[in-house]
Amino acid sequence: MSTLSDGAPGVLQAYYRILRAGIRTYDPGGEFRTLLADDLEFEGPLAGKRTGAEGFCQGVKGFIANVMDLRVIQEVHGLHGSAILYDAQMPGGTVRFAEFFSISDGKIAALRLHYDAADYTRKGGR
Questions:
Q1: What is the DSSP string of 13-70?
Q2: Quick one: 79 exposed, middle or buried, by C-beta within 10 A (0-12, 13-18, 19+)?
């Protein structure tokens, strides 16, 4: 398991810490929710385009329940956003993800997620 660099925004360090911690400790209305803007804009292969933090908090549960390990490959951070490339170890193998974040007022305001949806579901993602 590799972690984000010290140069990563604190909100993203907390985000990935929660993703790695597992479903037993995940509380969709707790700390994870505080990392997200109320009107979070999310876009991903399975969910499509959605607005709102609560829906994202519920949707990410399937990922957290199945991810066994995360290995950060590359990260880039700017003044108002970050991009993270990582491999997630799922029950059926490794799936590569790229996440593009917009950050505003210390919260994740937008997230664009890219991965092969068929590969993800085939390897145990939901």
A1: HHHHHHHHH-GGG--TTSHHHHTEEEEEEEEETTTEEEE-HHHHHHHTHHHHHH--EE
A2: exposed
pLDDT at 12 (0 to 100): 97
List all residues 6 or more positions away from 65 whose beta carbon is below 8 Å from its beta carbon. 22, 23, 126
By the 10 Å C-beta count (0-12 exposed, 13-18 middle, 19+ buried), 19 is classed as middle
Look at residue 88 in the predicted model and tell me its pLDDT: 96
Q: List the chain domain ranges.
A: 10-122
Q: Which amino acid type is present at position 30?
A: G
Looking up tokens 């917009």, which residue turns up?
Answer: 102
Q: What is the pTM of this model?
A: 0.93
Q: Mean pLDDT by 10-residue block, N- to C-terminus, for the chain (126 residues)?
A: 85 95 92 97 95 94 93 95 97 97 97 97 90
Q: Is residue 117 within a helix (H) or strand (E), and if so which, with residue range?
A: helix 117-122
Domain 10-122 CATH (choose: 3.40.50.970, 3.10.450.50, 3.30.70.3190, 3.40.1190.20)? 3.10.450.50
